[in-house]
Design a protein that fits this description.
Chain lengths: 144, 144
DNA sequence: CCCTTAAACATGTATATACATCTATCTAGG
DNA sequence: CCTAGATAGATGTATATACATGTTTAAGGG
């Protein structure tokens, strides 16, 4: 009986990581039929928003180490969802969605929307906005 | 110049994961001299709070898959920070802090406190409480 | 033009994370 | 007691994540 309800942990990091795990589970489940993980979806969506962008730049937007991105991009490339070319600065790799990547993203968006809508309903508009604002604030503060 | 400021991403999951990465970076940096990662610290602290507990139970508290925990516990065990014994139910593993684990936690707490205090200052009491409350809410909602 | 320094990315390694599958054990019926 | 189903963990595999280090290219100073 009385399973110990989820309680606030004293550590902000632990709380956030836990929420991140739980939330990722939802998104992953929804995207699984497409063979997409949440992180991969995020990269595709980000590329769709930015257009062609160097790896470093994408890393900054996602607060993700560029070498971490290398591994994820490898998967996206293997699936044909992105295209990469050298920039004028030959050290840079310029990333963009491929045609197949746009198609995959288009397939994924409705599922993603459903999860988003369900959560927005659960939190209410205010809670939702607050959540986006606060987590964004965390990123800013932690990035300084 | 004008580095594109961190902007809110349309995806809650992406936002939360990004905040999680950024925040973890802070905690990791602070704990690195002790050879502790944020996740490992979280487990030690949780065990300190719960006392002896089966792996499954700890997984529930942390919203972490029990098999994921197996890998982290392996590291903690290798370092001598936890002790494990079979429960009356022979399938269960009962986890607890070892003496060395309590010592390690004791060394880590002041560093952890410093990061927590700095963040609490940046967010203000209200922002801080709100953050804990909302992320906890996310875990609950996503766990249902 | 050469050299030093720095930046962008690749690679090796370790940890974090979860799922599918397997084994051992428990529980409930019969 | 025996068996069928369920549960706790272990293990194999794949991805997510970052750091240390190495390579290539760029940028600046002599």
């Amino acid at each position: 009986m009385s399973e110990p309800a989820i309680a606030v942990l004293p550590c902000l990091c632990a709380n956030l990581r836990r929420a991140s795990r739980a939330l990722t589970h939802l998104y992953d489940k929804s995207l699984r039929p497409l063979g997409l993980q949440a992180t991969q979806f995020t990269v595709l969506q980000a590329l769709s928003l930015t257009g062609e962008i160097p790896q470093k730049g994408l890393g900054r937007i996602l607060s993700m180490d560029s070498t971490t991105l290398t591994r994820t991009l490898e998967i996206l490339l293997r699936n044909g969802w992105i295209a990469i070319r050298r920039g004028r600065d030959r050290r840079e790799r310029l990333l963009r969605l491929s045609w197949a990547g746009e198609a995959q993203l288009k397939r994924a968006v409705p599922r993603w929307e459903k999860v988003q809508a369900r959560l927005r309903r659960k939190f209410g508009m205010d809670g939702w906005d607050n959540l986006l604002k606060l987590t964004n604030e965390v990123t800013k503060v932690a990035t300084e």
